[in-house]
Amino acid sequence: MGKITEALKKAAEERFERIEKISRIKEREILVIKKQGNSKVDACVIPYFDSKAHISEQYKILRTNLLSLNKGRTPKVVVLTSSVHSEGKTVTALNLAMVLAQSTQKPRVLLIDADLRRGKIAKYLGVDQKIGLSEVLRDKAEASDALFNIDIDNLTFMANGDIPENPAELLASEKMKEFLSIMRTQFDHIIIDSPPIISVTDAGILGSLADGVIMVIQSGRTQRGIIKHATELLHQSCVQLLGHVLTNIEYHLPEYIYRYL
Ligand SMILES: Nc1ncnc2c1ncn2[C@@H]1O[C@H](COP(=O)(O)OP(=O)(O)OP(=O)(O)O)[C@@H](O)[C@H]1O
Ligand SMILES: [Mg+2]
Questions:
Q1: Fold of the domain built from segment(s) 32-257
Q2: Are 158 and 31 spatial neighbours (Cβ–Cβ below 8 Å)?
Q3: Within 6 Å (CB) of ligand 1, which residues are found?
Q4: pTM of this prediction?
Q5: Where are the domains of the chain?
Q6: What order of strands is seen across the sheet that includes strand 34-35?
Q7: Which of 179, 185, 241, 244 is most enclosed, with most CB atoms within 10 A?
Q8: What's the pLDDT score for residue 201?
């Protein structure tokens, strides 16, 4: 047998072993999603409180745009990032996950807080959730110990957990790839919140594991040069940039123009 044939055979065997390993894990994995009964959801998660509010409609427009990408072959795993801190990534991720879960088909939605440095999803949901992605990636907990929901059954969350020493290495690990492959089999949409791309490499790593990245831009604050630099960093990580979300927009038209009810 020629060397090339042998090498191809070996690669195919390795691939088969990897797939088998993942399916074995899949069979074993019984996803237990525990309920966090005493959540005190922050007022900025508007679709949770009023799914018909004007602001909820804006997130539904984002949902429609996302669902109609790639001629309906919607990217399943989507990362939210921004150029710099505090542009509205986490609130956008939460509200997008919420309106996706509110769709009539009731898809299974997972929101992962992959900002292992200063994640705030548990805080915005008002829950005391200490075990999160960081523990799962360090083999200190099973996914089932970290997955939880509040009072919406088809919307599941995973908090960030304890701040680890090596966030970028954990996100780039085989364990993260394995974890995401399993989650892909269990959920219809996976939204991943991440740190800003200019400060740390995490969003680039996550973006390369996902089907696409949405970049959040705070209007009136983030300068064009910074956005351009952030976009270049994303392209260098070979991620697919799906689009942008502008936050903090000031309306110059009277509010009644946007009202329809
Ligand atoms: N669409 C929006 N319009 C106006 N303000 C917003 C919007 N989205 C979020 N905010 C506000 O911006 C602030 C920062 O939001 P958020 O925590 O989502 O930012 P972040 O980008 O995740 O920050 P960090 O980089 O610290 O993770 C919050 O006070 C939030 O209420
Ligand atoms: Mg955040």
A1: Rossmann fold (3.40.50)
A2: no
A3: 44, 82, 85-92, 115, 118, 120, 196, 247-248
A4: 0.88
A5: 1-30, 32-257
A6: 34-35, 147-149, 155-158, 109-113, 189-193, 77-82, 212-218, 241-247
A7: 179
A8: 96
